[in-house]
Amino acid sequence: MTVKLCTDSIRTIAMFEKITNVQPRDCIINGEEVYFVVESELMGKAIGKNGANMKSLRKVLGNRHVKIFACNEDIESTLKSMVPNISRIEIKDDTVMISVPRNEKVAVIGRNGRNINAIREILKRRFSVKELKLR
Fold first, then answer.
1. In a domain, 77, yes or no
2. How many CB atoms lie within 10 A of CB 29?
3. N- to C-terminal Cα separation, the chain
4. What percent of the chain has pLDDT over 90?
């Protein structure tokens, strides 16, 4: 599936590459938060020693929250990297249902649904998932 990026996303990706020396697979700008998707092997390099790259990115992006997700070739390991406390994953056609502990749901959803919407968008772009349900 080809993804069309807006000008802001392209600029943000270029800034990410310049700071981290890692080419992200995707970038989602969602209000006050910016989400990057990188290869799982490059997560450490993207974050930087003691989070130095994360701090630099946040400063350059105007104190926006920066989140970096590891992307793998299969949907299950990608989801587990995005939501570490997943207890169950069910995949049926183009619908994915995930179960998380009750006390983790708020963090997965995020303020005004920002986190879950970003995860949905990433799954849609990478794996053609049409629907993500949270239990």
1. no
2. 17
3. 28
4. 78
Burial 77-116 (b: 16+ CB within 10 A, else e): ebbbbbbeebeeeeeeeeebebebeeeeeeebbbeeebbb
| pLDDT(1) > 70 | no
> Does residue 45 form part of some domain?
yes
Same domain (yes/no): 67, 111: no
Instruction: Please tell me whether residues 61 and 119 are part of one structural domain.
Output: no
Q: Are strands 88-92 and 65-71 parallel, antiparallel or unpaired?
A: unpaired
Give the separation between CA 87 and CA 5, rounded to whole angstroms: 33
The whole-model pTM stands at 0.89
Which of 63, 72, 58, 66 lies closest to 25, judged by CA? 72
Asked if residue 65 and residue 86 are part of one domain, the reply reads no
Are 1 and 61 part of one and the same domain?
yes
Could you tell me if residue 111 is inside a domain? yes
Which is nearest to 79 in space by CA: 118, 48, 49?
118
